[in-house]
Amino acid sequence: MNAQAPIRPEAPAPVGLLAELTHRCPLRCPYCSNPLELDRRSGELDTATWQRVLTEAAGLGVLHVHLSGGEPTARNDIVEITKTCADLGLYSNLITSGVGGALDKLQALYDAGLDHVQLSVQGVDAQNAEKIGGLKNAQPQKMVFAQKVVELGLPLTLNSVIHRGNIHEVAGFIDLAVTLGAKRLEVAHTQYYGWAYVNRAALMPNKAQVDESIRIVEAARERLKGQLVIDLVVPDYYAKYPKACAGGWGRKLMNVTPQGKVLPCHAAETIPGLEFWHVTDHSLGEIWRDSPAFTAYRGTDWMQEPCRSCDRREKDWGGCRCQALALAGDAAATDPACSLSPLHAKVRALAVEEAAETPPDYVYRTIGSNIRSPLKEGAPS
Ligand code: SF4
Ligand code: FES
């Protein structure tokens, strides 16, 4: 293993590491980006291995570490891991639900050098939020947690994943962020892979709702300039061009799963045939540079038309590979979210149709469920 191996020019140094410390979580959100087959506690990496991974990440040039899950504070060693980030000069961002043991550990995390907190909020109205998150009494705990974060002087970001069950609350999310003293609010329309793909019909808003949510955000950005930054992630199915998913495959981010597999994006395991290397067998440097999963869709050589000759190919890198697999049945296809994809009209029609129907009940995220990934089954008929 050689953590300091030079990076070839086609593989720029990664800037971020998403450390999925555990898949355990008290919430059961139906849009969770974790895989359908969640890792169990017994298979999680130990503290020393995470510390080695973080040391290798710092050596590679990583700047930000997102301590995520599941609920990262469910790990007994979360304070130790956070301290390791601080000792290595890595900017640490705790991505948390704010429930379970999060509040009890917050002071120790602050003392250990935590830099930033990103708190998920499922809704503004408590009853609605708790229905979406699948946990009673979660909302008051989240509010107390947010207050404590701000009292400590830690920068707070609220993350709201938007879908038809809460899209009417976008203005409320903005007010809540201001009231709580958050510095940033993410209004992130649902990305449809993992559990969100299973729940797509229950989550898909209609175009008029989406347009209204964008209008509300744009007006608030003007009004709250200098007070609150609002990030808006627009929904792919109604977009003109796709996003550069994960900043482009193998260009910016590494995602380490609870068991130590290293992925180019959080949903990459849905793509059949990709070979993922493990932190116990290879250094992060080797994985970033040479592992088959990272090299598969890095750059533009793998692209088909229309991406291959498109002048946006180094802006959005062809969109999302996982979504291309889910909707086109081919991970190397143009993301059907793109208006230049031959499948775009069909995908848009699917969204319109689902949004017009009565939403089915949520399929809540659970460990040990036997739900099969529809992403592996290829394109819709
Ligand atoms: Fe992006 Fe490909 Fe669409 Fe061009 S054709 S905008 S590169 S997804
Ligand atoms: Fe895998 Fe977009 S989620 S490339």
TrEMBL record:
Enzyme Commission code(s) on record: 1.21.98.4
Keywords: 4Fe-4S, Iron, Iron-sulfur, Metal-binding, Oxidoreductase, PQQ biosynthesis, S-adenosyl-L-methionine
InterPro entries named in the record: 4Fe4S-binding_SPASM_dom, Aldolase_TIM, MoaA_NifB_PqqE_Fe-S-bd_CS, PQQ_synth_PqqE_bac, PqqE-like, Radical_SAM_PqqE_MftC-like, rSAM, rSAM_sf
Pathway(s) annotated for this protein in UniProt: Cofactor biosynthesis; pyrroloquinoline quinone biosynthesis
Swiss-Prot/TrEMBL cofactor(s): [4Fe-4S] cluster
Pfam families, alphabetized: Radical_SAM, SPASM
Gene3D superfamilies, A to Z: Aldolase class I
Source organism, top-level taxon: Bacteria
UniProt entry tagged with the keyword Iron: yes
Residues the entry annotates as binding [4Fe-4S] cluster: C25, C29, C32
UniProt domain Radical SAM core: residue ranges: 11-223
Catalytic activity entry: [PQQ precursor protein] + S-adenosyl-L-methionine = E-Y cross-linked-[PQQ precursor protein] + 5'-deoxyadenosine + L-methionine + H(+)
Keyword Oxidoreductase applies: yes
Function according to Swiss-Prot or TrEMBL: Catalyzes the cross-linking of a glutamate residue and a tyrosine residue in the PqqA protein as part of the biosynthesis of pyrroloquinoline quinone (PQQ).
Subunit structure: Interacts with PqqD. The interaction is necessary for activity of PqqE.
Protein name per its UniProtKB record: PqqA peptide cyclase
Natural source organism: Methylobacterium persicinum
Lineage of origin: Bacteria, Pseudomonadati, Pseudomonadota, Alphaproteobacteria, Hyphomicrobiales
